[in-house]
Amino acid sequence: MLAFKISGYLFLICLLFLFRFSSSVNYLYRICPNTTTYSPNSTYRSNLNQLFLALSSNATRDNGFYSYTVGRGPPDRIEGLFLCRGDVTPDVCEECVRNATTDILQRCPKEKEAVIWYDECMLRYSNISIFSRSEQNIRLIMRNTQNITGQPDRFRTVLAATLNELATEAANNLPGKKFATRQANFTAFQTLYTLAQCTPDLSSGQCNTCLQDCISNFP
Ligand SMILES: *[C@@H]1O[C@H](CO)[C@@H](O)[C@H](O)[C@H]1NC(C)=O
Ligand SMILES: *[C@@H]1O[C@H](CO)[C@@H](O)[C@H](O)[C@H]1NC(C)=O
Ligand SMILES: *[C@@H]1O[C@H](CO)[C@@H](O)[C@H](O)[C@H]1NC(C)=O
Ligand SMILES: *[C@@H]1O[C@H](CO)[C@@H](O)[C@H](O)[C@H]1NC(C)=O
Ligand SMILES: *[C@@H]1O[C@H](CO)[C@@H](O)[C@H](O)[C@H]1NC(C)=O
Ligand SMILES: *[C@@H]1O[C@H](CO)[C@@H](O)[C@H](O)[C@H]1NC(C)=O
Ligand SMILES: CC(=O)N[C@H]1CO[C@H](CO)[C@@H](O)[C@@H]1O
């Protein structure tokens, strides 16, 4: 089960796994409404290429995060960012971001606004400001359809306790990265794995609010 939420500049990932992470670049989902589009040879498209160059050339940064703006003003101004999962190496981060910049143009060939998620990173861009506004809501919830075997109440208790500790830890992590993972023994045979991450530019308070909002979506 995993959930993503973006509220403007607030970005958050909550991942909840009963199984271990995979290790290759793994596509999850993309959102790019076709209501706003640009034409193939437009300035918007060439600005997008510039944005992708700036983002991929910064993909080995220690905190796995970079944001960049191309264009002076509307209609061709683009804000973009990527965030790599906090536990991937700079090499994997770079591979994921590079791949994302080509992949997204295949999956969203003419849309001005797009967001794409992989297990290892996410990439987002828009012609409207995504760095400072919070009215826009993009939310992705993916769930494992298998049920917990037995003790659903205990599972919810363990889950809630683990996620609350997790959120506190991620929000108060060292400045460079707002990332944390936690494990809990649900039964002797089932381990609960949890992961949370905010973009590192958020304050601890913003990150915690965002994570708590995400946690409240889990039943
Ligand atoms: C936009 O997407 C919708 C739903 O996928 C589709 O029905 C519609 O034709 C698309 N519009 C354009 C302009 O591509
Ligand atoms: C973004 O693009 C849409 C669709 O072309 C347009 O309606 C909107 O005004 C643009 N916003 C800005 C800030 O340029
Ligand atoms: C875009 O530019 C290329 C090369 O300059 C040209 O071959 C192509 O026809 C153009 N496409 C459009 C839709 O204008
Ligand atoms: C990051 O991107 C900026 C803007 O394109 C560029 O000037 C800078 O050299 C890049 N940083 C690295 C380490 O490549
Ligand atoms: C999980 O439990 C629900 C409610 O008891 C049931 O409707 C559903 O079919 C179960 N799903 C699976 C995959 O067993
Ligand atoms: C889970 O169980 C193992 C073995 O029983 C134990 O070593 C470990 O400390 C437990 N982990 C937690 C988080 O309680
Ligand atoms: C390593 C990796 O995941 N490569 C992917 C990059 O993106 C293309 C699609 O554009 C995929 O086909 C590759 O598998």
Summarize this structure as a short list of keywords or feature phrases.
single chain, 219 residues, alpha+beta, Killer Toxin P4, Chain A, five-stranded antiparallel beta sheet, 10 strands, 30% helix, binds 2-acetamido-2-deoxy-beta-D-glucopyranose, GNK2
Structure report:
- GO terms for molecular function: kinase activity.
- This is Cysteine-rich receptor kinase 10 isoform X1.
- It catalyses: L-seryl-[protein] + ATP = O-phospho-L-seryl-[protein] + ADP + H(+); L-threonyl-[protein] + ATP = O-phospho-L-threonyl-[protein] + ADP + H(+).
- Keywords: Kinase, Receptor, Repeat, Signal, Transferase.
- Pfam families: Stress-antifung.
- This protein has 219 residues and is an alpha+beta fold.
- The protein folds into two domains: 133 residues, Gnk2 domain, C-X8-C-X2-C motif (Killer Toxin P4, Chain A); 75 residues, 2-Layer Sandwich (Killer Toxin P4, Chain A), CATH 3.30.430.
- The chain is 30% helix and 30% strand.
- The protein contains four helices and ten strands.
- The strands form two sheets. The protein has a five-stranded antiparallel sheet with strand order 8-1-2-10-9, with helices on one face.
- Strand 4 and strand 5 form a beta hairpin.
- Helix 1 packs antiparallel against helix 2 and helix 3 packs antiparallel against helix 4.
- The longest helix is centred in the last third of the chain and has 20 residues.
- It is elongated.
- The chain binds 2-acetamido-2-deoxy-beta-D-glucopyranose (7 copies).
- The site of one 2-acetamido-2-deoxy-beta-D-glucopyranose has 5 residues, from helix 2.
- One 2-acetamido-2-deoxy-beta-D-glucopyranose binds next to loops.
